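Take a minute with the sequence and fold tokens given here and flag any structure token that looks odd. Thanks in advance.
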Amino acid sequence: MKFLYVAELVGKAGIYALKQALPIIKKERAVDFTLVCADGATGGGGLGRNHAAYIHKLGADAISTGECCFYKKDLVEHWAALPYVLRPHNLGSPGRGIPGLGWRIFKTGGEQRAAVLVLLGSNFNRIRENNPFEGLEELLQKLRAETPQIIVDFHSWASGEKWTFFTAADGLCSAVIGSHNRVQTADARILPGGSAVICDAGRTGSTESVGGADIAERINEYLTGIPNWTKEAWERPELQGVLVETDPQGRALGIEPLRFPVTPAKI
């Protein structure tokens, strides 16, 4: 099976790059399943309901989020109508009425199925999350009983935590894709147990920016302490991500980082 993971969409430039590049990549690389991280798709932070539906229409089989999953009220209120959108599984405590699911089994065509699991790292202090390592083996074994094809989106700040998590999950899933930092790393590999990993898949949006955001505004934020996410960067947009190929047992055969530049939109 061939999995395409599209790195975090950032703003309108990210959605534009996805629209331009995704059909080409899916056709040329014979992709079976596409997972898109959209934690920064709406205004650079969070995901709105309309954007979620549009990203799905553009070809995303599943959409993952991170610490910004509840930033947009319209998504929170209508999460049940968007079963392809996943929030981190380890948010809060069971039974607290938190909307959405953190994992799901998806059909990929024919008799094939793929599981997607989203987990949040332990270093986000603005929201309450549970330890992502607790119960990890039990949860992945539960998913393996349904399908050996398992992709984990691990949304974390720290590379050290990501690599520790990779080794804990090795052999229990097909791939663990690191997200959140919005900078593609050069450490993609297959671990001894057969799981493909990369510390960060990068971002989809402007590459002449700071994490997809306007450069001048990010500098001004550090000077003044006043954040401003209203001005989006559009220069040199591209789709970034990784392509993972697996065997029928769910073991990774290869992992390839992708960077697909697109022609900038006229704005």
